[in-house]
Amino acid sequence: MALIVQKFGGSSVADPESIKRVARRIIETKNAGNDVAVVVSAMGDTTDDLIDQALSIDSNPPAREMDMLMTAGERISMSLLAMAIHAAGSHAYSFTGSQAGFMTDAQFGTAHIKAVKPDRVRRALNKGSVAIVAGFQGVNEGGDATTLGRGGSDTSAVALAVALDADVCEIYTDVDGVFTADPRIVPTARRIPVIDYESMLEMSSCGSKVLALRCVEYAQRFNMPLHVRSSFSHRSGTLIVPEGVDPRTLPNI
């Protein structure tokens, strides 16, 4: 049995049908004999819509209140996904970033994770349930909600995987892995089956949008294997692994 953390981005949970598809993928992974923790982004353009609403009311909104507002998107997707898993005959618990033990500094909008204490997540997994965590968010020492900035849900997923000592962190998106160029723009772009951290960091720093730079840095620091996959297919995707790790030893490959 392996412990797998799966992260699903906004395009993967954009609408009810997409959420149901993600629920089936999670249950499939669990039925294969794995423990599964999940990190989700807000649905589709929810975050952008919330920002637009805020700016229509206050052109210079307080940072604390913006973070309070921004955490709403992931709360919606996490609870709907838990309901979809329940409707499909399995069981899940959803947790906000603070409930999942994501402790951050006090920098609203671009907070950094100081510690992850996923006690409630562990208890859910020990019960045999799927644990669903709202990405992109945490709580500071004062008890205020904080958000992690661009790529925050990817970083949340890696941080949770590290805290749980997971076997692999799967990042699900709308492309079939990491490519030599954006396949939606360059038809001849090739998928990269396996890549090391340094090469992935270089691609992220040069503008690749598949993985956020902070996410890859966090994974490298703790040697957490990453598996970038599409939530719309079962293709093999791209593995980002520490030096010396045989990709064939990782679960769910």
Secondary-structure blueprint:
Blueprint: E1 3-8, H1 16-31, E2 35-40, H2 46-57, H3 63-87, E3 92-95, E4 102-104, E5 113-116, H4 119-126, E6 130-134, E7 137-139, E8 145-147, H5 152-164, E9 168-173, E10 194-196, H6 197-205, H7 213-222, E11 226-230, E12 238-241
Parallel strand pairs: 1-2, 1-9, 2-6, 3-6, 9-11, 10-12
Antiparallel strand pairs: 4-5, 7-8, 11-12
EC number: 2.7.2.4
Family: Belongs to the aspartokinase family.
Catalytic activity: L-aspartate + ATP = 4-phospho-L-aspartate + ADP
How would you explain this protein's 3D organization?
The protein has 253 residues and is α/β, with parallel strands linked by helices. The strands form 3 sheets. The chain has an 8-stranded mixed β-sheet with strand order 3-6-2-1-9-11-12-10, sandwiched between helices. It has a two-stranded antiparallel sheet with strand order 4-5. A two-stranded antiparallel ribbon has the order 7-8. Helix 1 crosses helix 3, helix 5 packs parallel to helix 7 and helix 6 runs antiparallel to helix 7. The longest helix is centred in the first third of the chain and has 25 residues. The mean pLDDT is 93.
Shape: globular
Task: Write down the overall mean pLDDT.
Answer: 93
Helix share, percent: 25-40%
Percent strand: 15-25%
Radius of gyration: 17 Å
Name the poorly predicted regions.
Answer: none
Number of helices: 7
Distance between the termini: 14 Å
Q: What is the strand arrangement across the widest sheet?
A: 3-6-2-1-9-11-12-10
Main sheet attributes: strand count, strand direction, barrel closure: 8 strands, mixed
Element order: H for helix, E for strand = EHEHHEEEHEEEHEEHHEE
